[in-house]
Design brief:
UDP-N-acetylmuramoyl-L-alanine:D-glutamate ligase; 23 helices; 18 strands; binds ligand NPW; binds potassium ion; ATP binding; Ribokinase-like; nucleotide-binding; multifunctional enzyme; lyase
C-alpha cells in the first residue's frame, strides 16, 4: 500500500534523515537527479545512447541525411531545490554526451545552499541564461525538456510563466498522437511536479490572465521517495502525464510513522484480499444478510443494481424492501434476490427486528419525500447500530437540516456522496473546496473528506475519478481512476448504485466500514477496467467473478 505524503511530511522525513547524519541534502539532490535521468531512459530507451540524430523540426528528409548530432536537452531551473535537481540532471546528461542548455527563473545568488552548489557545478560545464531569454521555438525542437522550475514549494500563482505552460500543454498533446522525434518536439519531464501545481492538493493557482495556463504539463513526472497527495487529486492528474516514483534512499523512522499514521493518506492499490476470501465452511448466513430499500413503482432500478452488487460481492443473502405498488415490477426482474414489502418507516422497523440482517443500503432512487422517515427508522437508536450505507436521496433529503442526519449517524455508517450531494450536506466545506485557491497548501478533496467524516462521525466516501475515503479518526485513502487505472466509462448512470451495493455486501460479510468502502471502491474500478468501453451499470457486478479470479480468490 503506497502512502501519499504532503510536502510538509516529505520535508520532515528528509530533515529527520539529514539530522540523523545518514545522508546530506546534497546527496539527496544528487540521487534525485540520478532518479530523473534513470526514469527518462526507462521511459524512452531510444534516448539512452550517447548521441542521436537530433530532433528534426520539420521531419524533412534532407535533415535526416545529416551527420548524427548529440541529443539536445533544455533544462528549466527554478529558484528552489527543484531547480537544484535540474542542475544535477543537466550535469548528468552533459556527462553522457548530450548538448544541454540551462535556463534559470530567479537569481543565482538567492538559490538555497544545495541548489547553489549544483548551480556552480553546472557553470563549470556550461552557461545559464535567464528563462526569459529562452527562445521557445528553439526549446521545442530539442529532444528533451526538463521542468525543474517548481516542485513541492509552489505556494502561489506563476503568471509570467503562463505562456510557457500553454506551449508545454500543446506539446504534450502533440506527442500523444505522434511518436517522439517524428514531430521534432521534445519529451517533457517534470521533476517532482509539473510546475505551478500545489503538492498537497493537486490544484493550481489561477490568476487574472486566464488566456494562459496556470501550471505546466508533462509526459512523465518523476517524484522521490513516495508520491505526494497532489499527484492523485485535483488538476494535477491532467498534468503529470504519468507518475514515476524513484527511491532516493530515504527511510522514514519508525517513530515518525508511528506518530503520524493518522495524517497519512493511502493510495489504494489492492483489495483487502484476505478478508475477501470466503471461508469454505460458511453457510449463507455466515456471509451476512444485506437489505436494500427500493423507491416506488418506476423507481426501483437503482436499488436493484445495488442489490445485485451486494450479492455478487459475496453477501450470503440479499433482500430488497419494496413498496407494495412496486412489488410486481421488482418480482419480474429478480431471481436470487429476495423481496419484502416495506411501505413505510413502521414496516422497515418491523423488518429490521430480524437481527440476522447485518447490513443496510438506503437511498438509491428512494424518493426525497419518503427518505427522511425511512432513514430515521433505519438509524433508530433503539435498534442495534447496524452497518448502513447512505447514498443518493438518503443524503439529499437532509439538505435543509444536515445536522438532523448527523445526529442519527453512528460509527458503522458509510456516506457515499458525489460532489452535488456532498455540497448539500456539507455546504461550508464544499465552498472551501470550490473557492479559487490563492496560496498553498490549497484546501484539497482529502482535507474536505476528512473534515466531513469528522463532522458526520462516520466514514465518508466522496465519489469521483479521484474517490477519497475518510474515517472520523483521520484515516484516509484515495482510490484513483487515473493514469493506468483510468476508466472514464465508469461515469455512467447507476454506477454509484452498484458501488453502494458493493459496500453493503462487504459490510454484511463483516468488513469494517473503512475497509468495506475502500475495497468496494477499488473493486468498482477493477470491474470497469475489466469490461472496458461500452460499460453500463448492469455490467459492473458481472465482472466481479473475473476480478476475483484474477485476485486468486
Ligand atoms: N524534500 C526532499 O526530501 C527533497 C527535495 N528535493 C527537491 O526539492 C524540491 C522542493 O524544494 P523547495 O522546498 O526549495 O521548493 P521549490 O519547489 O523548489 O520552490 C521553492 C522556491 O520557489 C519560490 N516560489 C514558490 N512559489 C512561487 C511563485 N509563485 N513565484 C515565485 N517564486 C515562488 C519560493 O519562494 P518563497 O515562497 O520562499 O518566496 C522558493 O524560493 C522538491 O520538489 C524536489 O524537487 C530533492 O532535491 C530531493 C530531496
Ligand atoms: K517541476
Amino acid at each position: 500500500m503506497t502512502e501519499l505524503l504532503t510536502a510538509a511530511q516529505m520535508r520532515a522525513i528528509e530533515q529527520a534523515a539529514i539530522d540523523s547524519g545518514e545522508v546530506t541534502g546534497l546527496e539527496l539532490m544528487e540521487r534525485a537527479g540520478q532518479g530523473v535521468v534513470e526514469a527518462i531512459f526507462e521511459e524512452w530507451p531510444e534516448l539512452a545512447g550517447a548521441s542521436g540524430r537530433g530532433a528534426s523540426p520539420s521531419g524533412s528528409p534532407e535533415y535526416l541525411d545529416k551527420e548524427e548530432v548529440p541529443f539536445r536537452a533544455v533544462v528549466l531551473c527554478g529558484p528552489g531545490n527543484n531547480g537544484g535537481d535540474g542542475f544535477v540532471v543537466a550535469r548528468l546528461l552533459h556527462e553522457r554526451g548530450w548538448a544541454v542548455e540551462v535556463f534559470l527563473y530567479g537569481e543565482a545568488e538567492k538559490l538555497p545552499p544545495d541548489a547553489r552548489v549544483n548551480y556552480e557545478r553546472w557553470t563549470d560545464l556550461g552557461e545559464v541564461n535567464d528563462v526569459s531569454v529562452c527562445a521557445m521555438n528553439k526549446g521545442w525542437s530539442c529532444d528533451l525538456l526538463i521542468d525543474a522550475l517548481f516542485g513541492t514549494g509552489t505556494t502561489r500563482a506563476l503568471p509570467d510563466l503562463g505562456e510557457l505552460f500553454w506551449n508545454m500543454e500543446d506539446m504534450v498533446d502533440c506527442f500523444q498522437v505522434e511518436p517522439l522525434h517524428e514531430i521534432g518536439r521534445p519529451a517533457i519531464v517534470a521533476i517532482d511536479f509539473p510546475s505551478g501545481v500545489c503538492a498537497d492538493s493537486g490544484r493550481d493557482f489561477p490568476h487574472r490572465d486566464e488566456h494562459w495556463r496556470f501550471s505546466a504539463s508533462a509526459h512523465i513526472t518523476v517524484c522521490f521517495h513516495q508520491p505526494k497527495l497532489g499527484h492523485f487529486i485535483g488538476d494535477a492528474v491532467e498534468k503529470c502525464g504519468k507518475v514515476v516514483n524513484k527511491d532516493i534512499g530515504l527511510r522514514p523512522s519508525h517513530e515518525w510513522r508511528k506518530s503520524n499514521w493518522r495524517q497519512i493518506c493511502k493510495l489504494l492499490q489492492a483489495a483487502h484480499q484476505d478478508w475477501l476470501r470466503k471461508l469454505t465452511d460458511q453457510n449463507k448466513f455466515g456471509n451476512g444478510h444485506s437489505v436494500v430499500l427500493t423507491g416506488e413503482r418506476g423507481h426501483t432500478g437503482a436499488a436493484r443494481l445495488a442489490a445485485r452488487g451486494a450479492l455478487r460481492v459475496g453477501a450470503g443473502l440479499v433482500t430488497l424492501c419494496v413498496p407494495e405498488d412496486a412489488c410486481q415490477e421488482v418480482a419480474s426482474q429478480v431471481t436470487s434476490i429476495m423481496m419484502k414489502t416495506v411501505d413505510d418507516a413502521a414496516d422497515l422497523s418491523a423488518a429490521l427486528e430480524d437481527k440476522r440482517i447485518n447490513a443496510l443500503c438506503i437511498g438509491p432512487a428512494l424518493g426525497l419525500d419518503r427518505a427522511k422517515p425511512l432513514v430515521a427508522a433505519a438509524l433508530d437508536a433503539g435498534q442495534q447500530a447496524r452497518p448502513t450505507v447512505l447514498d443518493a436521496d438518503a443524503l439529499s433529503a437532509f439538505a435543509d437540516e444536515p445536522n438532523a442526519l448527523f445526529a442519527m449517524l453512528h460509527e458503522k455508517c458509510v456516506l457515499t456522496p458525489h460532489g452535488g450531494e456532498f455540497a448539500r450536506l456539507f455546504p461550508d466545506i464544499s465552498e472551501k473546496l470550490n473557492a479559487v485557491p490563492t496560496k498553498g497548501p490549497a484546501y484539497s478533496k482529502v482535507d474536505a473528506t476528512r473534515e466531513a467524516a469528522k463532522r458526520a462521525g462516520c466514514v465518508v466516501l466522496f465519489k469521483g475519478a479521484d474517490t477519497v475515503i475518510a474515517a472520523p479518526d483521520g484515516r484516509c485513502s484515495i482510490n484513483s481512476a487515473h493514469y493506468e487505472r483510468s476508466a472514464p466509462w465508469l461515469a455512467t448512470a447507476g454506477s454509484g448504485d452498484v458501488l453502494a451495493g458493493f459496500i453493503t455486501g462487504l459490510l454484511a460479510r463483516g468488513f469494517d466500514p473503512m475497509g468495506a468502502a475502500e475495497t468496494a471502491a477499488w473493486l468498482h474500478v477493477e470491474c470497469a477496467l475489466k469490461f472496458g468501453p461500452g460499460l453500463i451499470a448492469e455490467d459492473i457486478p458481472e465482472q466481479l467473478p473475473a476480478v476475483f479470479r484474477d485476485l486468486g480468490l
